[in-house]
Amino acid sequence: MSHATDESTQIQDPDQPTDSDQVREIGHDEFDPVGALALIGLYFLILVFLWFFMYFVEFLGNDPTVVSGIVSVVTGGVGLA
Amino acid sequence: MSNAYIDQFPAEAKVIRAAFYSSFFALALGGVFGIIQTLHRTGYYRFIDSADYYTVLTAHGVFLVISFTIFFLVGIFTWAITTSLDRGVEDLRFTWGWYGLMAVGITLTGVAILAGFTDATDISASVLFTFYAPLQAHPLFYLGLVLFVVGTWFAGVDWFRSWWAWKAENPDERIPLPAFMVLTTMLMWYIATLGVAAAILLFLLPWSLGLIESVNPLLTRTLFWFFGHPVVYFWLMPAYMMWYVLLPKISGGKLFSDPLARVVFVLFLILSVPTGIHHQYLDPGIAEGFKFIAMTNTMFLLLPSLLTAFTVVASMEHGARQRGGEGYLGWLKALPWRDPVFAGMALAGLMFAAAGFSGMINAGMNINYLVHNTFWVVGHFHLTVGTAVALTFMAVTYWFLPQVTGKQLWSRSVALGQVVLWFVGMTFMSNAMHRGGLLGIPRRTAEPQYDGFEFEAAVGSVAELDAQIALGGVLLTLSLVLFFANVVGTALNGRSDDLPDNSYAGTLSGPEDAPQILDNLKLWTAIAVVLVIFAYTFPLLSIIDRGGLFGPELVELPLSTLDLESISALALAVEQSTIATLETTADTATAVIAGVIP
């Protein structure tokens, strides 16, 4: 088995990051994932927004279910009388 | 000469190739049935009888979520074990043995399903992926599933044997991360498949063979979901593994944290199984309290998912910054978006984030009532297994194919077009499915169009939703065609000596930072078993107590004319007695109220 580390292989190698792609080496202590924090924070805000939006989509447009359903049965019963 | 997987493990590469090709064959079949049912449901093109729709639906479900996903999984897991432990399988005949068992099993199941299209035999299995009793399949269907699952059990044994042999030679070393992921996932799978094994071997197969008269449908359903929820993690874990061990490398960086990845897989081992009842929120016969426990366990599963979101994004960011990326969001531009392997996995991850939200809706007991059994659920799992898993698998295929065939990928541009097309197609289809579900459009229905009734859309119309679903389905089919073109084109290529090395991502924070206890597989398995006992003992006992082990008298489907007559007679009797009771109640109520109100 030979090595895929010689120059010509590296340049044509589509899946490995090549030396020309990598402009610097960032170690454990220098790396501060603020970008990940920003993206995940954004995702969290979207989730919170959707959670509130859910109330309008799923409950406001529909008839009462479960708990309020009991109330309608009771009032319905009185109406029957 | 290169140092690709096929150069290191030529014999194992053959097994993995066989598993991948089996997986792609299932994907092709499943895809064909997918477009047929998309066009049928939406009413654009109906060339099959609506009664056959359910055979199509069963084939689409079983071929995609059982054979496509699991064959791909065994391929990836074999790669992960051999590569990370740096040793071949212990006994190649055993490896081919479990592959053969899986292949024979799924062939029997597939034949039973496809035989439903012809009247030449009385074999059929149009019972959908969930095979709920009283829907009954031919014994071949159940037998095939059993062989397939037993095949996966032996595959697990194979991987454990490799690990034990490796451990004997390396007693003080930490389990390499990919091997750790394989072992924890398989432990979860062993626990989970006990449910479906019990459902089939004790009840459904004997019932289908005529050895027992009837089954308790709630019991077999509950046992199915004992397996049915963890199976979604069985699909997902290979995709997660790819996001942890391959994506950081493709991004040009390293995995952010090996310990966090281990924690995630341990959490999935512990929490995957005791959650299955959340698929049964609307089943009568299971007390609300048990459903509440399942919901609580389910919500805990958000933890490993969100840990994954952070770790994977941070690893991509590390790659992007090493490639010169700057700023809070500007680093995203430095990622290798033109690489189909990266683009496919990143888009799959993005879709999975959206699926996270619809999953939270499904998981909440009260909100679930509004979307249960609607098209929403179909939209949800086309984002999870249909994109997060399937698109990741297709994207990593572009990395794996050269590794296991020793041939250059046929076309990287076609590959890039393929993954983007899948993303766009699924955006149309899944979004419209979710919205359709909110209008109350049911799932598992050949013709969801009804005389004298219209689903009312607050925004848009049902016709517009149908158009989006059909368009999405067509784009997905095109994407599949491109995928297969690439697979076939690559297979026809000549052997190349110029392939990337077989390797996976390094770590910023390695296993030396992970507490030793994380590698204690016995401990985590014990905790998982205890949680399963807590979550399932009482619901199962209560179901058996109410409905009997083999159920009350059960009418088999499809009904004969005679049965139908007796049922309508029964229904009439029930209706009359109900009316009589209501009248008496109303009279009593009137009398009482008249007495109370002066």
From TrEMBL, chain A:
Q: List keywords of the entry alphabetically.
A: Membrane, Transmembrane, Transmembrane helix
> What transmembrane ranges does the database entry give?
34-57
Q: Where is the composition biased (Polar residues)?
A: 7-20
Highest taxon of the lineage: Archaea
Task: Please give the residue ranges the record annotates as the region Disordered.
Answer: 1-25
Name this protein carries in UniProt: Cytochrome oxidase
From TrEMBL, chain B:
Q: How does it sit in the membrane?
A: Multi-pass membrane protein
Q: Which GO terms describe its molecular function?
A: cytochrome-c oxidase activity; heme binding
Q: Where is the Cytochrome oxidase subunit I profile domain?
A: 20-485
Q: Where is this protein found?
A: Membrane
**Regions crossing the membrane:** 18-39, 59-82, 94-117, 137-160, 180-204, 224-247, 259-277, 289-313, 341-361, 381-401, 413-433, 469-492, 523-544
Which terms does the UniProt entry file under GO BP? aerobic respiration
Identify the main location: membrane
Q: What InterPro entries does the annotation carry?
A: Ba3-like_Oxidase_I, Cyt_c_oxase-like_su1_dom, Cyt_c_oxase-like_su1_sf, Cyt_C_Oxase_1, Cyt_c_Oxase_su1_BS
Write down any Gene Ontology CC term.
membrane
Q: Which Gene3D superfamilies match?
A: Cytochrome c oxidase-like, subunit I domain
Tell me which UniProt keywords the record has, alphabetically: Electron transport, Heme, Iron, Membrane, Metal-binding, Respiratory chain, Transmembrane, Transmembrane helix, Transport
Query: What family does this chain come from, according to its entry?
Result: Belongs to the heme-copper respiratory oxidase family.
Q: Which PANTHER family has this protein been placed in? A: CYTOCHROME C OXIDASE SUBUNIT 1 (PTHR10422), CYTOCHROME C OXIDASE SUBUNIT I (PTHR10422:SF40)
> Protein name, please?
B(O/a)3-type cytochrome-c oxidase subunit 1
Which organism was this protein described from?
Salinadaptatus halalkaliphilus
